[in-house]
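Batch manifest line 458
LIGAND: arginine
JOB: complex structure
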Amino acid sequence: MKLWGGRFTKNTNSAVESFHSSISFDSKMYKEDICGSIAHAQMLGKQGIISPDEAKQIVDGLNSILADIEAGNVEFTVEAEDIHMNVETILTERIGATAKKLHTGRSRNDQVALDMRMYTMNKTKEVQQELKELMSALLDIASSHTSSYMPGYTHLQKAQPITLAHHLMAYFNMFKRDYDRLKDWHKRTNLSPLGSGALAATTYPLDRNLAANSLGFDGITKNSLDGVSDRDFVIELCSCLSIIMTHLSRFCEEFILWASNEFSFIELDDGYSTGSSIMPQKKNPDVAELIRGKTGRVYGSLISILTVMKSLPLAYNKDMQEDKEMTFDALETVTGCLSVFTGMLKTTVFKVENMKNAALRGFTNATDVADYLVNKGMPFRDAHAVSGKLVFYCIERSTDLLSLSLDEFKAQSDLFENDVYEAISLETCVEKRIVDGGPSKVSVDKQIKNAKEMLLKI
Ligand code: ARG
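JOB STATUS: finished
ARTIFACT:
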């Protein structure tokens, strides 16, 4: 008979049995489920709701189940429906009638909410670890490229020169925000819903804080109805994970462009690229493409959970069982993508000469021509127009600003003097941008130094 079978006279339809069973995926939460049950049993014992001896029997039984699951000696069944009832069924087989007291003052509704919080918090630690490794790889590479000039782009058109270090530090900041977002998410998630019962808490004198503390929670959820119906933490997590994938996919897109013959900014390691079965010359950036593609899958998790939760009446509804597969998948996908991406990044060769040559073309110093004139007293708008005219003049003659003679400069404005060449050189364009957060070596060195100190502290 089912653990809930008392009021039923007929068996579950066989198709429904497997349809509503979640054991194939929620078995991943076996550890959290058992730890939660141990904390609950110990609390029941301390509160005199069950005897100390009964509590001990239950805890010992649960520990033996945990050890056997980890040793691969436990088979779960679809008939027992989910991880919660599988564990309870096995416990009953092992310790007999006392096992039936474990569920006193508890419902699967607060149990599953508890397990999900603990499981996602545990798995998120892995994501944060991967983020840290990526950030540290970025700092290493950036440290050796503070003088590697490259074009900065807007609209994928060359804009102003920067350095590779500056570009990499932009990503560093994005991943740091991702890290912080997860830390912030953790604060809201680290509250125990145990004791919320099915929805209306319980008449037993539970000590919710005791159970919560023993599980390492910061506190308890404040309303039993909210405790069992809330899946904001799942939505928020999928959102954090989606943003990580947004960042990875932008980086991957740049890697794909940079690896192209047209850019030739990087050479991917053979270990992180693949060939073509027909075109012998090909070396494809498959890893970057696959990460870019998997972004859709993680966004899918976010949209799914938002849609599942939309319009659900309080409190628990079975719809909410659908929160698991996609969240687990998103966590695994993001952890995997971060790890492979870091490996790809660390083994990539940056072709700094090509980057520098690209920065020298495409009029990346046109703003600096205008700034030169402003420094000589011309209003910026007029200076912008003069620089624009010079750019047009160069395009017509297939040349660049640095190759113009002083006379050609002077033809547009007599404010130009010989010092213009120095003022609009690639080095000056980058190294004069010394404001905090800017691309100059001084400024990026400072960014890297602060980032390194910060990374040691998190
Ligand atoms: N397997 C269920 C889930 O994942 C557990 C909670 C079931 N509660 C219930 N009253 N049916 O959501």
